[in-house]
């Protein structure tokens, strides 16, 4: 997958952000996007092939894998990155609207189309609320799907068509759990930054 669009989006929003917003963009780009592309994607690359159960019953291993991993962690992380970054488009569109309006009227209607004030301030605050809400929703989703941010070495499965309770082994559980904790930590930090920027702009 090409992440060029997301990179360009974050770079474009950077010039309209406050200092706190620029820190958020740096964390998303360096500690989330680059970590995903360079390292995390490789850790989960063969998760299905390396998931083993001590049975040869046809279909059992597939059903157990689907039960314990209803959504791949790495795909859910990618979805989180995309959705959390999407509200920034609101700011870009609003600035583009201002610039287009000035061109259409052929006169200067704003002191600076990219300055955070008036309607753009409202748009920026809404984007911060949406980003914070999406972060929280995905953290809750990760917690529910993956048993409280844990990746066990051994899981017991008795789903049909398994003949009885079988032992299934997850590959590289420690490494996966480290990346999961890293994900949670960076999401938490982004939530704190979003709330800090929201408070700063509200009480400024």
From TrEMBL:
<comment type="similarity">
    <text>Belongs to the connexin family.</text>
</comment>
<comment type="subunit">
    <text>A connexon is composed of a hexamer of connexins.</text>
</comment>
<dbReference type="InterPro" id="IPR038359">
    <property type="entry name" value="Connexin_N_sf"/>
</dbReference>
<feature type="transmembrane region" description="Helical">
    <location>
        <begin position="77"/>
        <end position="97"/>
    </location>
</feature>
<feature type="transmembrane region" description="Helical">
    <location>
        <begin position="178"/>
        <end position="203"/>
    </location>
</feature>
<keyword id="KW-0472">Membrane</keyword>
<feature type="transmembrane region" description="Helical">
    <location>
        <begin position="118"/>
        <end position="142"/>
    </location>
</feature>
<protein>
    <recommendedName>
        <fullName>Gap junction protein</fullName>
    </recommendedName>
</protein>
<dbReference type="GO" id="GO:0005243">
    <property type="term" value="F:gap junction channel activity"/>
</dbReference>
<dbReference type="Pfam" id="PF00029">
    <property type="entry name" value="Connexin"/>
</dbReference>
<dbReference type="InterPro" id="IPR017990">
    <property type="entry name" value="Connexin_CS"/>
</dbReference>
<feature type="domain" description="Connexin cysteine-rich">
    <location>
        <begin position="134"/>
        <end position="201"/>
    </location>
</feature>
<feature type="domain" description="Connexin N-terminal">
    <location>
        <begin position="42"/>
        <end position="75"/>
    </location>
</feature>
<feature type="transmembrane region" description="Helical">
    <location>
        <begin position="21"/>
        <end position="39"/>
    </location>
</feature>
<dbReference type="GO" id="GO:0005922">
    <property type="term" value="C:connexin complex"/>
</dbReference>
<keyword id="KW-1003">Cell membrane</keyword>
<dbReference type="InterPro" id="IPR013092">
    <property type="entry name" value="Connexin_N"/>
</dbReference>
<comment type="function">
    <text>One gap junction consists of a cluster of closely packed pairs of transmembrane channels, the connexons, through which materials of low MW diffuse from one cell to a neighboring cell.</text>
</comment>
<keyword id="KW-0965">Cell junction</keyword>
<dbReference type="InterPro" id="IPR019570">
    <property type="entry name" value="Connexin_CCC"/>
</dbReference>
<dbReference type="InterPro" id="IPR000500">
    <property type="entry name" value="Connexin"/>
</dbReference>
<keyword id="KW-1133">Transmembrane helix</keyword>
<keyword id="KW-0303">Gap junction</keyword>
<dbReference type="GO" id="GO:0007267">
    <property type="term" value="P:cell-cell signaling"/>
</dbReference>
<keyword id="KW-0812">Transmembrane</keyword>
């Amino acid at each position: 997958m090409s992440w060029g669009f997301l990179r360009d989006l974050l770079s474009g929003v950077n010039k309209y952000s406050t200092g706190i917003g620029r820190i958020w963009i740096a964390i998303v780009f360096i500690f989330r996007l680059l970590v995903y592309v360079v390292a995390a994607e490789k850790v989960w690359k063969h998760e299905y092939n390396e998931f083993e159960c001590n049975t040869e019953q046809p279909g059992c291993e597939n059903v157990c894998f689907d039960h314990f991993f209803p959504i791949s962690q790495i795909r859910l992380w990618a979805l989180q990155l995309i959705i959390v970054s999407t509200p920034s488009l609101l700011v870009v569109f609003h600035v583009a609207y201002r610039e287009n309006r000035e061109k259409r009227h052929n006169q200067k209607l704003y002191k600076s189309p990219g300055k955070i004030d008036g309607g753009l301030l409202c748009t920026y605050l809404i984007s911060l609320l949406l980003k914070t809400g999406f972060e929280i929703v995905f953290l809750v989703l990760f917690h529910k799907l993956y048993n409280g941010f844990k990746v066990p070495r051994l899981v017991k499965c008795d789903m049909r068509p398994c003949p009885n309770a079988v032992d299934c082994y997850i590959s590289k559980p420690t490494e996966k759990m480290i990346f999961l904790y890293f994900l949670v930590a960076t999401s938490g930090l982004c939530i704190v930054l979003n709330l800090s920027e929201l408070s700063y702009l509200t009480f400024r």
